[in-house]
Amino acid sequence: MMNTAEHKPTLAARCAVLGSATLYEACGQPCAVDPQIRSLWPGAFIAAPAYPLVCSPGDNLAIHIALERAPRGSVLVVDTGDFIAGYWGEVLTVAAEAAGIVGLVINGGVRDVAAIGKRRFPVFARGVSVRGTVKASAPAVGLPMIFGGVPVAAGDLVVADDDGVIIVPAAAVAGTLQAGEARAAKESVMMRQLSQGATTLQLMGLDHWRERA
Questions:
Q1: Confidence of residue 211 (pLDDT cuts 50, 70, 90)
Q2: Do residues 153 and 144 touch, judged by C-beta distance below 8 A?
Q3: What gap in Å lies between CA 124 and CA 65, rounded to an integer?
Q4: Number of helices (H), then strands (E), in the chain
Q5: pTM of the model
Q6: Which of 2, 11, 168, 178 lies 20 to 30 Å (CA to CA) from residue 57?
Q7: What whole-number distance in Å separates Cα of residue 22 and Cα of residue 37?
């Protein structure tokens, strides 16, 4: 008999089915990162533990250090103080893949967009810039911080897709997934009812607005 555990969906697979929007609603905490941080190429997806770091404006030394320190399977969450420059490009992408890093979320800029997209490496950034960076300082590597308005510590769950980026505290991950799957099941029933002629006013208990409109 086959072990049923072998068929249990992974955390990443469960997150992919639910998506960032459903998980945000299910989390019940302020976990949504600044919406201007967007996917670099359509369809990019991340669901992995965070490894936070801080770069000085126009300086990417902390990223190079993080590539040696971050556990395999991590996503780098990089605060640059919203400074747009080319902190990350094709060279760092290749280095990250070799180090087992599964994605990048940065509130600064990146470059070599076509090469990154061709490699299908998930990157979520505030902008794109051809300007290079220096390597002179590393304010923080692996320490808790505020990123895009949301607290993040090593091991928190980052989920990022075309809808945006959320960061779920590690202690809340199990409950968020359970609540998200319950929400998705409820919405599946609702969509079936909508396809059969029900209205959103009826299903959401908003009938009283019909008379007021």
A1: low
A2: yes
A3: 20
A4: 7, 10
A5: 0.91
A6: 168
A7: 18
